[in-house]
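so im writing up the methods section and need the Lysophospholipase L1-like esterase record in one place, dumping it here so i stop losing it
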Amino acid sequence: MEFTQRYVALGDSFSEGVGDWNAECPNGVRGWADRVAEQLILADPSWGYANLAIRGRKMRQILTEQVDAALKLQPTLVTIYAGANDILRPSIDLDALMAEYDAGIARLRGSGAAVVLFTGFDSVKSAVFGKTRGRTAIYNELVREIADRHDAEIADYWRMREFQNWDYWDVDRMHMATAGHTLMAARVLEVLKSAHSIEVPELDTRPARSRLAQIKDDAVWAREYLAPWVGRRLRRQSSGDTLTAKYPQLVQPVWKPATRSAV
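--- predicted struct ---
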């Protein structure tokens, strides 16, 4: 099928859709980008969609592996979020990295595609990732400069204060859950000024938890999610090492009702 409008999503686990588990989807996840694509296709059947994002990818991997592949698809719209996995590393030359990001965005915009960039999430309420808050704030300012320089749009994750509610997050506390991905899809479509029929789910009010219960929950989380995550980084491994892109070519997927995949 010949598509006159072509949306390509680039990035890491955020754009791949990790946390929005659905065994019917490639890689076992759906995600906000799939939901954006669905709305674009519903409004205009001339849209095709590709998603090249793979969990665990760092910025240089995204620029090397995904930008050329995206350009071959002749995109009219690109969304890209890169750098989150770099920010979490012990040491990073952020200025050098963002100079490379600038060059990558210049190539995407030079193709004529509209480009949507993301600022980083404000981790102020995270006991673990809050330590990188200052680094993320610098990253965000550099992203804003890149967007201004190349006339790109920004989905301002940092200022989406709704995401400070941890009910939008998966049990691993690192990725958005289905509710979070649904909300993000609506926010991205608003940036694109595209009408949509997405209904953001209302969150249940959590009962107050005792300090002891919270400590027990934190211990379980540290054992089941944080420790394996740290271990992979020490071994220089990634959860995406054995995965390929969900939709490497332009398609119009049929999204089925969610069934949670094994994690």
